[in-house]
Amino acid sequence: MSRYKKPTLDKDLDKISYMEEATTSLGRGLMAPGAGLLFIVLCGIVAGAYVLGAPSGGVIVAASAIGAYMALNIGANDVANNVGPAVGAKAMSLTTALVIAAIFESAGALLAGGDVVDTISMGIIDPAAVADTRIFTAAMMAALVSAALWINMATWFGAPVSTTHAIVGGVMGAGIAASGFSSVNWLMLSGIAMSWVFSPLVGGLVAAFFLWFIKAFIVYQDDKIAAARRWVPVLIAVMAGTFAAYLAVKGVSHVVTIELSTALVAGGVVAVLAWMVTRPLIARQSQGLENRNQSLRKLFAIPLVCSAALLSFAHGANDVANAVGPLAAIVHTAEFGDVAESVAIPLWVMAVGALGISFGLLLFGPRLINMVGRQITKLNPMRAYCVALSAATTVIIASGLGLPVSSTHITVGAVFGVGFFREWYTERSERRLDFLNEGEGGKAKRVRPVRNREEQARRKLLRRAHFMTTLAAWMVTVPASAMLSGILFFLMAAIL
């Protein structure tokens, strides 16, 4: 039979098969960018219908497309911090996380995103420096483009960065290009610079503290289930109260102003109610569980899913302004011909930001979600719980001190804090060593000492490469976006 075989035809068929597989693979890779481009075009069409016949309609259409691009990048990069730990802990699947985050991000943006936004982000630039409408429009467009490009590049390299800091850098660079260094509020920028150090450091310390508490009072107890019945309701109550205060301070701040003291009182009431409700539930849920760590993780799964939803809601309410704030300012300036310090946000502009963040998350978010949740350090529900609680706690602490902080820096700093604490606790904790030497469940274990540097490096529980990449991205976000915005300002000014 072999004499009738046609090797030339077989080779040709193999080539065609390989070509089809390559085409299919390439098509899959282009689906997300193609869908993102379609969304940007649709936003431009909607804006064109809104300003049909207006003399500055072209500027509004271009700004809408840029705002949609910015919103897509916020969803691709920033939202990963809210759901990444829960996905890494396997409390929910990636698909479930994407759906929950998209729903709550949109709800936060549309319901609590606010009707009015400041045109000069966080008071960085003196309004008199950009009083001319043409200069102001060019500055806002340059800030949007530079921030979006920087976030896009950071997402490409797998680095979670602060979108707020990116837009701050963009506004600063455009302001300097427009009227010099004297137009910048350097005192405000110094406060933002303090947050670069404050927020990730405090986030890491708070997360490490809660992880230490869980290990000391639950994990390394002889009867883990009895300890869990005692302390897990307390921990859930602390989370519920903290998130209640967090949402009061950050989540609905654009709709109604709530003092920090009032938010703390409300959080205390919610904590007590949560403890009363969860205590019998945890007692019932823990019945029949084996006395092992795997059983404990089941008790933290549902609170972790709720925390991811609440973090997404608060993020949508606050960070949608990064996309639609400059866009709303451009629309107001084009329509009324003046530069206002604060402007109303049209519903269609808010929809661009809300839908853009959700689509960006669905199309491009999985990469950063996997990086934050799985690649920095290994997370389980207990560790992810510490990360989520740290994010809310640190924001409340910063609000009390009057410091502007980044939710991205806090959450990622908390993940790093958990990883570093795991390394320290694994190598130096006498309680853990005694527990292992005595034996868990009656079986003695021998703790093997680290014999050389290679083995010690292999046992590191936190990937240093991700730590250095993220730290470098944080340090250069503001200056990089500022330099890019300054260059783009002259281009925009020449076009407009």
From TrEMBL:
Coiled coil feature spans: none
Species annotation: Roseibium polysiphoniae
Keywords of this entry: Membrane, Phosphate transport, Transmembrane, Transmembrane helix, Transport
InterPro entries: Phos_transporter
Protein topology in the membrane: Multi-pass membrane protein
Pfam family, one: PHO4
UniProt similarity note: Belongs to the inorganic phosphate transporter (PiT) (TC 2.A.20) family.
Compartments where found: Membrane
Protein name per its UniProtKB record: Phosphate transporter
TM regions (residue ranges): 35-53, 59-79, 91-113, 133-154, 166-188, 194-219, 231-249, 255-278, 299-317, 345-364, 384-403, 467-495
Signal peptide span: none
